[in-house]
Amino acid sequence: MTMSVKSALEQRTAINYFDASKSLTEQQIEELVRLATLAPTAFNLQNWHFVAVQSDAAKQKLHAAAYKQQKVLDASVTFIVCGEIESHKNFDRVVKTLVERGGVSEADAAVWKGKVVATHENNPTTQQAEAFRSASLGAMALMLAAEEQGLASGPMSGFDPAAVSAAFDLPATRIPVMLVSVGYAAEGNYPQKPRLDVAQVLDIV
Questions:
Q1: Is the pLDDT of residue 1 over 70?
Q2: What residues contact 109, with CB distance under 8 A and at least 6 apart?
């Protein structure tokens, strides 16, 4: 039986301890990213990129850049979720897909592209803000996909972005926004932490 989104949200918790003896297949990793990329992006920019750190050598590099957090070594895979700040320059690949598979006319796609250029070109503030939004939405979708598939996940902001970029030869236009470790939970993890009551964080106007 497929897990509901409600159940995935209620059961998901940030994991620190993973079973280092278990791994994921390449197909499992690809499916997690496929599902992650169903998250929304402004103008369908798809301004994200995922680096799946799985090999022992790659894990060692990321471990050093992530302040030696053990879960980077123990998790089956840790995703470097990046935001692309110059995706507007590569929007033709999105246009091609929209026309070929999305039922959008070439004329409408051209209008769409014009709006992307108008809002993003020579606007580094928007480029970076949208890259961070998109990467964050993609990371959350990835974690929900992992939960639905019986996997555990642990998001991390504790890393040195410059060190990660250098270790994995990321271009300057590809910003590491978040790390997400995925695998099988070991013993010793905390359950999901209590949240504030909705009344404390919601205004209905």
A1: no
A2: 95, 98, 99
Task: Report whether 182 contacts 78 (CB < 8 A).
Answer: yes
d(CA 172, CA 140): 24
Find out whether 87 and 31 touch, Cβ atoms under 8 Å: no
Query: How confident is the model over 66-91, as pLDDT tens digits?
Result: 999 999 999 999 999 999 999 999 99
**Separation CA 118–CA 153 (nearest Å):** 37
Tell me, rounded to whole angstroms, the distance of Cα 90 from its chain centroid.
Answer: 20
Spatial CB neighbours of 15, under 8 Å, sequence gap ≥ 6: 71, 152, 153, 154, 181, 185, 189
Provide Rg for the chain, Cα atoms. 18
